[in-house]
Amino acid sequence: MRIRKAVIPAAGFGTRFLPATKAQPKEMLTVIDKPLIQYSVEEAVSSGIENICVIISRGKSAIENHFDKNPELESFLEIKGKTDFLREVRRISDLAEFCYIRQKQALGLGHAILMAEKFIGDEPFAVLLPDDIFDCRIPAVQQAISIYEEYGSSVVILKRINKEETSKYGVIDPEKVKPGVFRLKDMIEKPGPERAFSDLGIIGRYVFNPDIFDAIKKTKPDHRGEIQITDAIKILLEKEPVYGYLFKGRRYDAGDKAGYIKATIELALKRPEFKKIIQDIKIE
Q1: Is 221 exposed, middle or buried (0-12, 13-18, 19+ CB in 10 A)?
Q2: Contact indicator for 46, 278 with CB cutoff of 8 Å
Q3: How far apart are CA 277 and CA 50, in angstroms?
Q4: Which residues are 69's β-sheet partners?
Q5: Strand pairing partners for 187?
Q6: How confident is the model at residue 199 (pLDDT cuts 50, 70, 90)?
Q7: How far apart are CA 203 and CA 171, in angstroms?
């Protein structure tokens, strides 16, 4: 079955970016000239996804407004002859069909995904975390979809991580299937170097069969009261194989200040109008 739907969890407080996120959603922080969440939406759309459910919380209406039409702005741009901006504003509102579901309590990524169960129905679907920006020849979620189509089972995207990063990511116990593709034997959330199974960490792109919803419902909250998607995937492993794919391309953790700065600089260097400006910067 073709992947037509995606879920983008965007209900978090964005505490790592305070005070910038005190009055605006972290997902609306701009990397060059686009908000973080738009990178995920465009990646999903370029991968053939038509319907996107954004999980939001109180104070996130700016996300809805961004992907909605704005007749007053469009009229202003048309009168002023700013046709390039007008074209872009209209393109954004026509990217996909959107729905928004409010997560009333911050109960973890697994819970956020579960909120979209009725929207997804009995279909496979993608999950894209907007903190992650991927710069790939083939979109990262499209790479995951290709593995899903080959094996018919849920897929997580992987990256090689160092020892320090094992405290930041879910880490898998892999069984190699072929170059870049692994069957998950086990996994653990943020284990640290002493308990990590491997150097393969799960990053923010997933393709799930709808069976993941039952697995989430069976998942016990962690010590913080949150339902971790890593724990739900472990339960899913009891019912079906889950595969990991070592994606091809570059990924930025733009939910971290250092990663956000790196993404801004490196992506700007790829655009001719900014490249020379950045290269000419002198630090005294």
Answers
A1: middle
A2: no
A3: 37
A4: none
A5: 172
A6: very high
A7: 10
pLDDT tens readout for residues 120-135: 999 999 999 999 999 9
Higher local confidence (pLDDT), 224 or 132 = 132
Which element (helix H / strand E) includes 115?
Answer: none
Contact in structure between 201 and 170 (CB atoms under 8 Å): yes
**Contact indicator for 144, 206 with CB cutoff of 8 Å:** yes
| Side-chain-facing half-sphere of 168: CA atoms under 13 Å | 13
d(Cα 22, Cα 14) in Å, to the nearest integer?
Answer: 8
Tokens linked to 84: 């390039």
CA atoms of 20 and 35, how far apart (whole Å): 14
Q: Cα separation of 45 and 65, whole Å?
A: 19
Q: Go through the domains of the chain in sequence order and give each one's CATH number.
A: 5-279 (3.90.550.10)
How many Å apart are CA 106 and CA 85, to the nearest integer?
36
Structure token digits, residue 25: 């959603």
Are 236 and 218 in contact, with CB atoms under 8 Å apart? no
Report which residue type is found at 52.
Answer: I
What whole-number distance in Å separates Cα of residue 25 and Cα of residue 151? 37
Tell me the average pLDDT of the chain.
94
For 199, the token pair is 């150097």
